[in-house]
């Protein structure tokens, strides 16, 4: 059975092996964990383009010795022209289109997050070194993955008509072959420009003018002024006290609150449970439902929220949620399911810096719009806004969209530090809870905790059902018990993409670092 890998010098885990190795290369050259993560983030935007892009958003948790964890929020706001009236005039009364230029209605924040993280962590290497692998792969080519082919095929009908998509991701109108070489010369030039002029060029330089000009020509509401107004923010993470330590995650507009609530609620009802038993799985699923009830009613742009997210993480609030769970019966469901595709990556260096990072374009390939002048695939995160003015996620110019993205970090009571995460909409907090509870609460090996069968309540990866999807590797007796308790169980193949790509790193008190990557992905753990 696979077990976690260990190293004393530094480690990076990512869902694509070239990204993990790029990050490890930066560590080897003397860079810190933040610099390694920017290198990995740039590479994975090139080699795993269906999952993320520099035309998306990003969120960071950074832990440094002797300091409280800090978050970097790189979330793009809705364009100034993105009003409900603007969409009505475009013929859309009830919902924002999910693909195309009208879906590309928010600023892409990821690059600003790279810049803010590097400034916060006092980087040592030149930007040209950090971006060199991404530039090389964009210019000279990297292999097409089966995952990219599968999801191009799955959503081809809605993606192929979008500006620039077919030229970037098809070959003379056909799907590329697995392991064939794909090159993105315009993206290589953009990354080269950023490496020479600085990352702020994306928002206030030549790259910004190119982005704004093409977005406007294609019919997006994003303008140069929106890019120029954008900046990433340093934020204080949410935290929850657990019996095994303290968990941290991002505040709204992310669903980090839900991730922490699941852990806090389950921690109160797990007595007597064993790993991957009915009590474990049922307890986490029911904790998820309680957390999603809060998330779906309240979480959005914090400036528009009428409640304080931290209030839901108090001991009293979590006690009340725990009391609402029947240990033997499933709560009737559904709640609205949330879609999303993403990459999570982690990095740790020998100086004690730890990074949990997540980068996304929302749906597979985002809006599907690939800007020809810059080679950038733009996100569709703003399609999650509601055109109902009474909604807590109603579209308003300058408003931040709700985000499924939420990188996780924990400081355990025995001195260990853990960064972990997962991609996949509703699945993100659920897989986080599975991995964390297995490792930190039940003592399972880190790699086994990631590899073991997982489940998903709700929707991700292109399916809008709200059943409890369970990998068929889970103990049949547990599956039968879940069904008997009233869960609408749907078996899915083992090692399924439906449950996303997880990963984790742990720093032990003696300085040793352990890491795990997901066999469901194309990734690995790269160590010095």
How would you describe what is shown here?
The chain is α+β, with helices and mostly antiparallel strands and 528 residues long. It has 2 domains: 14-233 and 345-384, no CATH class; 235-340 and 409-527, Gamma-glutamyltranspeptidase, small (S) subunit (Glutamine Phosphoribosylpyrophosphate, subunit 1, domain 1). The protein is built from 19 helices and 21 strands. The strands form 5 sheets. It has a 7-stranded antiparallel beta sheet with strand order 1-20-19-15-14-9-8. It has a 7-stranded antiparallel beta sheet with strand order 7-4-3-11-10-2-21. Strands 16-17-18 form a 3-stranded mixed beta sheet. Helix 14 (256-269) packs antiparallel against helix 15 and helix 14 packs across helix 16. The longest helix is centred in the middle third of the chain and has 21 residues, at 278-298. The radius of gyration is 21 Å and the shape is globular. The mean pLDDT is 95.
Can you tag this structure with a few keywords?
single chain, 528 residues, alpha+beta, seven-stranded antiparallel β-sheet, 21 strands, globular
């Amino acid at each position: 059975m696979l077990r976690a890998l260990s190293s004393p010098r530094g480690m990076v885990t990512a869902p694509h092996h070239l990204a993990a190795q790029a990050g490890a290369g930066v560590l080897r050259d003397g860079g810190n964990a933040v610099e390694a993560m920017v290198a990995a983030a740039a590479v994975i935007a090139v080699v795993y383009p269906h999952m993320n892009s520099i035309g998306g958003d990003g969120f960071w948790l950074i832990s440094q010795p002797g300091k409280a964890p800090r978050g970097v929020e790189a979330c793009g706001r809705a364009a100034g022209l993105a009003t409900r009236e603007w969409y009505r005039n475009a013929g859309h009364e009830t919902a924002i289109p999910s693909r195309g230029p009208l879906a590309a209605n928010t600023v892409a924040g990821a690059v600003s997050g790279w810049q803010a993280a590097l400034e916060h962590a006092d980087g040592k290497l030149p930007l040209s070194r950090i971006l060199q692998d991404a530039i090389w792969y964009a210019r000279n080519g990297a292999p097409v993955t089966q995952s990219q082919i599968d999801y191009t095929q799955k959503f081809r009908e809605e993606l192929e008509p979008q500006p620039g998509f077919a030229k970037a991701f098809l070959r003379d109108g056909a799907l590329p072959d697995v392991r064939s070489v794909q090159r993105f010369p315009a993206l290589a030039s953009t990354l080269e420009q950023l490496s020479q002029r600085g990352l702020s060029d994306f928002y206030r330089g030549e790259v910004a003018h190119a982005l704004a000009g093409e977005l406007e020509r294609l019919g997006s509401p994003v303008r140069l002024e929106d890019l120029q107004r954008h900046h990433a923010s340093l934020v204080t993470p949410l935290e929850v006290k657990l019996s095994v330590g303290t968990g941290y995650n991002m505040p709204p507009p992310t669903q980090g609150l839900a991730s922490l609530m699941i852990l806090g609620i389950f921690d109160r009802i797990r007595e007597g449970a064993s790993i991957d038993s009915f009590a474990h799985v049922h307890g986490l699923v029911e904790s998820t439902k309680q957390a999603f009830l809060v998330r779906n009613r309240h979480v959005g742009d914090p400036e528009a929220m009428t409640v304080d997210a931290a209030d839901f993480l108090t001991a009293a609030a979590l006690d009340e949620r725990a009391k609402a769970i029947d240990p033997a019966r499933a709560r009737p469901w559904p709640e609205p399911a949330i879609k999303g595709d993403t990459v999570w990556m982690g990095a740790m260096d020998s100086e004690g810096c730890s990074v949990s990072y997540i980068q996304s374009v929302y749906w597979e390939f985002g809006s599907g719009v690939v800007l020809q002048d810059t080679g950038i695939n733009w996100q569709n995160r703003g399609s999650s806004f509601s055109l109902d003015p009474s909604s807590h996620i109603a579209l308003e110019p300058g408003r931040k969209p709700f985000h499924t993205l939420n990188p996780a970090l924990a400081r355990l009571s025995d001195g260990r530090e853990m960064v972990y995460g997962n991609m996949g909409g509703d699945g993100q907090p659920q897989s986080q809870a599975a991995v964390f509870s297995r490792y930190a609460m039940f003592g399972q090996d880190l790699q086994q905790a990631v590899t073991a069968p997982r489940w998903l309540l709700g929707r991700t990866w292109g399916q809008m059902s709200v059943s409890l999807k369970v990998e068929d590797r889970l103990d049949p007796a547990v599956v039968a018990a879940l069904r008997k308790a009233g869960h609408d169980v749907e078996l899915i193949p083992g090692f399924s993409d439906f449950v996303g790509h997880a990963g984790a790193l742990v720093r032990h008190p003696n300085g040793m670092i352990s890491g795990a990557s997901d066999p469901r992905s194309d990734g690995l753990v790269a160590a010095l």
